[in-house]
Amino acid sequence: MLRRVLCTVLFMGALPSLAEVSQGHISVVLLGATGDLAKKYLWQGLFQLYMDQVSSGHSFTFHGAALTALEPGQRLMFDVLKKLACPPDESPNRCAVLKDQFLKLSQYHQLKTAENYTVLNREIETLLRQEGLKEAGRIFYFSVPPFAYTEIARHINSSCRPPPGAWLRVVLEKPFGHDLESAQQLAADLTSFFREEEMYRVDHYLGKQAVAHILPFRDQNRQFLDPIWNRHHVERVEIVLKETVDAKGRTSFYEQYGVIRDVLQNHLTEALMFLTMELPANVSRAEEVLQCKLQAFQSLRGLNKNSAVLGQYQAYAGQVQEELQKAQDYISTTPTFAGVLIHSDSLRWEGVPFLLTSGKALDERVGYVRVLFKNRAYCTQSETLRDAEHSQCKAKQIVFYIGHGALNTPAVLVSRNLFRPVMPEGSWREAVGQSDLHIFGQPLSDYYVYSPVKERDAYSVLISNIYHGRKDFFITTENLLASWAFWTPLLDSISHQPLRLYPGGVENQHLLDFEMESGEVAFTLAEAVELLNPNRLTPSDYRTIQSKFRQSPLVSAWSEDLISQLASDIEKTASRTVARSGQFHLALSGGSSPVVLFQRLARHHYAFPWKHTHIWLVDERCVPLTDTESNFFSLHNHLLQSVRVPYFNVHPMPVHLNQRLCVEEDRGTELYAKEIVALVANASFDLVLLGVGTDGHTASLFPKSENGLEGAQTVVLTESPVKPHQRMSLSLPLINKARQVFVLVLGKGKHDITILLSRVGHEPKKWPISGVSPSSGQLVWYVDYEALLG
Ligand code: BG6
What we know:
The chain is α/β, with parallel strands linked by helices. It has 23 helices and 35 strands. α2 crosses α14 (458-467). Mean pLDDT is 91; it is low at 11-19 and 528-546.
């Protein structure tokens, strides 16, 4: 049948005749021809190959294969083939003719037994002999699970090799192992059947046009990049693949692999290598590229568990339980989000942070490689080149935009204040930007933007490269093992690392933001929900505990554990803030709940940056500071006398001036407000610690208070219903300017107000605490089980 078709196709008018098919015949065998990948990309890629190469002098046949029996397999496969699309730049008539031929040149085979392979081989040989065609080569595309690789490889090697003079190319899809050892094993198995040059390991990111262009871009722009492509000029590099989809329907694969194995070890690492490797003299010579890549792997500094932040979207565990029939209490330790900080110790890159980030169920789908250059110069250039807000020179960056996101197309962007890049004419063209679009904080017009003349799917690019024998687009065994050798120690060290749970999509807000400090990474915000010692809970308690309280993150535990968690979160915030800005402004509330926290913090002598911490009071009672009822007195007793906060960094509230207490004319509130403005940048405290009263008051802001719930005043005098009545307090608007607000709620006595607060909206007049809503900072609730569950 195929024979008759091949002849018909070859003798059709516009196409080459048999005589012209002098380059010989290529048989493409697609194993897993009815699977997902084949349906989505591979058949379309093969059709594209046929359209592109129909006049190349090669003739083709396409053999879809699977375990399914002949009839149903054939039906399934042709259902897919019938739906093949014509590319927009192809004339519809030509495409229709070629599609018809492509369908005729395709055939389904059941490949299950050794015998099936022998039969396939015989069919190919017979066809070629009868047509008098010379065999150029055979492509076997493995779109099957890796456990089937060895068996198939054995069959191909023993009965489907082409005759001498023709080439064999076997194409392999990941996963190629799940750690160094398993990858070595799989590689050893395959090398017993195939030679290295016969194997084409696919990483489809190498077929993405923006990724594939990194090396050529570096090569063609050597004149501009040579002086700046190094640690002296590059601030940091971000390599990002964000996805909105989750792992639903794929958990049987995903649960074993997780995000690092799924995309960081391969796709993002390859992009990292293209950026960091030294440029070979000839960037299209596979062997030279490989040697430079291996050298770049050697220079990577080893990772440890503090090199990564990990998360899991909340619905994941349920999906695993359902799809893999796990028990209700099954806990998955598979990360679906990771941010990893990588350093290279090469002379070129030492000290430059490379951040690799990927996750499922995030807020947007986008992929990019972003090189951000240092920007310390005072800008003497004209307004148009200057960042208006900071009167600095505008950011300088080069972005290889892989796809999706705001641009929704692959692109290369170069800040106009860097250089106008050299781009290959014919394949990339300068894009006319949408003026209102912003990419990484800058209008598109700030960049030279180039996009491909013809956008091509990664698989079409790769299939074309397989045909052309371009091995530089594929992963060699050495490359693969070098990558696993780099990632395996991290994977081992994090296998029991706690994961941050995230709700998914836009709701993640800043929960997954992370920052770098002394070569390590940590989430910027305190944990969203922390069930410490869950063993001490009864099963019914679980249902009542939510990850959010009043739409803000909630940390809940028994009070003792909660306090130690809160103290440690305050310490972490302090250290990070000091690392960033040199000082930490902490405002603490009075009352009884914080006392245990003060006592706990008093034990944080060493790691807490007390020397750089400023302590402010959130509120004070109008009593002398030496009075036992004074909030400052309590703070001093329980904390300040045990830690070394410099004297000038402690800021008690001036309630006692001119030997009288809280008299308006003494302007104590103004004094304190001025001190805040003078010392705290933007009057925005780094952290404000609040409590909640049973009546819903917070700080010394009571229900129906005339002062402090709104308005411009930042420090106010207020009246409390209980003694001592007179108080001084930070106002709600000032509290809401803070970068972080932690609210501590302890004890059974607070259960009723906790329940009430969980239901009410923003009504600060009735319940002042409900008006706490930082305008750009974060609010976290620390509520102990007694207050939460009663
Ligand atoms: C695959 C991963 O390799 O890459 C998937 O297995 C991921 O989990 C996909 O979704 C991302 O590729 P693309 O082309 O959609 O960015």
